[in-house]
Amino acid sequence: MDKYDRVYVNFSPAVSRDALKAMRQTIRGWRVQLKNDKSLADLSAMLGPILRGWQQYYGHFHGSALKSVWRRVNRSLIGWLMRKHKKLAGHKTRAAETLKGWLRASHSRSSIGRWAICLRMDDGSRMS
Predict the structure, then answer these.
(1) Total structural domains in the chain?
(2) 90 in a structural domain
């Protein structure tokens, strides 16, 4: 029932729009793209626990509802990679492919965790 006493037959528990907006603003506030003195392992240690916590709390029922958050993380990591390596500056797609390869290679041997493989694009679309 809602606040107007209307009865609904289904309920889909997922993250709210306000929570999604707050998470994206938090990610933007981290300014990951400016931390080009850090390595991927350092970024993982800093951001991994927070992102894993969001995934465990908000993604329990509908993990796909966090897609916009993972896109924001991806954009930040791609910006970080383009600033860190001059050969990738201005090449967003090449930077995305490089980051995807790094994350796949490091996923099995480091503590980056589940959030690091958020670069997978199940629908085949490219990152813009």
Answers:
(1) 1
(2) yes
The residues, ordered by sequence, that sit 6+ positions from 45 with a Cβ below 8 Å of its Cβ are 111
Q: Answer whether residue 83 is part of any domain.
A: yes
The residue range of the domain holding 54 is: 17-119
pLDDT over threshold 90, residue 115: no
- What proportion of the chain, given as a percentage, has pLDDT over 70? 82
pLDDT in tens, 23-37: 999 999 999 999 989
Residue 8 lies in a domain: no
Residue 94 neighbours by CB under 8 Å, 6+ apart: 88
Burial annotation 52-80 (CB, 10 A radius, 16+ → b, else e): eebbeebbeeeeebbeebbbbbbbbbbbb
Q: Are 113 and 44 contacting, i.e. CB atoms less than 8 angstroms apart? A: yes
pLDDT digits (tens, 9 = 90+) for 47-72: 989 998 998 899 888 888 999 999 99
Domain-located, residue 88: yes
- Longest CA–CA span in the chain (Å) reads 60
